[in-house]
Structure prediction request, 696 residues.
Amino acid sequence: MKLRKKALAGFVATSLAVTSLAGVSITANGATVNLGVNVASAADANLQKLIELQKKLNSSLATNANVLALKVALSGVDHEDAVAPLYAPFSSLGLTDEEKSALIGLLKGIVLAPVDNEAEFIELLQTTEVKSLIGEIERDSGIDITVEDFAALFVALNDKAYSALISNPTYAGGKTAFVESIAEAVLGGDTSGAQKASDLIEHYFTSNANFKSAVLDTFENYMAAPGVKDAFDAALPSIVGAFASANAPVYGGGGGGVVQAGNTDVAKALETLAGLKDKIAKATGDEKAALIKQAIDTANAALASAANVDVSKLVAISGDQASIKIDAAAIASFLKDLAALKAALAAAVGNADGFVVPTLTFNLGTVAQASIAVSLPADVIAQLTTAGVAKVAFAVNGLTATLPISGDFAKGIDFKLNHKAATSAETGGRKAVSELYDFSLALGGEAVTKFNQPIFIKFPFQTVAGVDQEKLTVARVESNGTLKVQGGDVVGNTITDNFRHFSPYVVVENKVSFNDISSVQAWAGRQIEVIAAKGVVEGKAAGKFAPQDKITRAEFAKILVTALNIENDDATTDKFTDVRPGDWYAPYVAVAAEEGIINGRTATTFAPTATISRAEMSTMIARALKSVKGVEDVANAEAALASFSDAGQIIPSLKEGVALAASKNIVIGTDGKFKPNDNATRAEAAVIVYRTINTK
Prediction:
């Protein structure tokens, strides 16, 4: 069977068919089921949810031109032939012509509800033929047909459909493949939880798989009718957008008691995007570009707001141990928000280009226990990956650990931290401004000591009188009790660093002084002390910095990589024949090459021991700013260099880099000259690196 456009309308339609029963009396086994007009007072929450969905869908699609055009195309279809795959299991019931006509009408309404005539369908449900038909089906199957039971089934199908929509709201691979994938997700799985509905499906279709095939075959028949396929293609984005928007504000609980209210930022954003759709369609030129940017910014801002999930209620306490297992229910609301925003953006703009899926943060709140364990199972990670999430973060007590969820991390994450006050012995006498944290990690249930993707940890620290915040650093407590300075970026009262293996860590003030920098104290003294405090540079001997010594290319590669916190002790490169794996600078050169920060003096040589020129140093800085901090090139390099009278001496391939560094005031000339080919000193390198790490 060749599948065509089928399932999206099908699952929505099934839900809507049941919601249409509100306020309608149906005779079943001689009893009258009257839901009444005000179903909001009914005990069954599933039915209420479907009714709310129906209202929102009707509101979105009632006057949609593409949906109206699809209705016109469907009006000429022979519905008896089209629904034959769904009708076949009922053909042996011996129905009267009137009952057969009623069943065909019901099946048509179930498959086509989003674009069917709602008033006609509700009128059909009130006819004596439908009441007689339901009675006949009940007698044949021995199953009581209740609205509530089918509502439970259709809520489950609706939620499955919404989850499937998350992975591909822009129809990557084509609309046919998109609809087919949703059909598989919605109709190919278990329908348990609504037992009577499941029993009825099994009685007439033998299995869910057969029921799914019948729905898909029916849709294939409709899509084969003249004009329907093209009309459905045109209407599909509107149906998807309406369905996503209708679902987004509806949140449920379960799975450990997580119940999240709808994100008001998302709700407002969806309204804004809906309002922008027509404006964008009518606008041209700069006005259209501005509206598209507004739509993208609106969607991204709302998703960023939704990407902070409060899981504090899931934290379990046992003595001095706290633990949490993050389940699918904890991410459900975020995934709904993501899908709704992406679909709404695509509906408004025509695509979801520019839509950014941020790091998803799980906020554990404040936890007093000394040991905290977080588990993120592989099946939850798979859902997040499918939705486009690349990283997750665990936030507790002001500390945030950000982890990738690809590669080995996709196997399942068990992250643990222990925290306590740091002792003077553990800090080597340095002043501690944070607790001492000891981390451990297991991936797929196996403990790991090293990981090939970095984990970023943001440590909170206290404001302590007399402490120089620029000299704060993350420090690693080695197994022999010594302290290894790590560096880190200070923002507010936090400091962030990245890690490829775990040990105990603490934030300390690291005062470093040199007795030979008086000659450069006025313009480089402070900068040397600060980057030395962060472990970026070291003295050549005890108390000796040697500020006037020339710096080599290898030395500067190490300084820059360390300053930017992108070290990887295990990094290697075979790009340069003069950088051997055992060389002290090899991992720094490898990282810099991988990040695009350095090129060789030739295609195969790096010249590690050669001195570095001011122009080369500026270019490496510029590449680092672009690679690590996302800084963009200057629009006009010649203009940026105009203040230097010797700009013509800059090697052409280095001009863009020098221009960018100069535009950020990272490199400054002397007496109107840049002196591009002069060799840089250690003091100059310290100043330039200090400015680099403070560039935003």
Observations:
- The mean pLDDT is 82.
- The chain has three domains: 56-246, 264-509, 518-694.
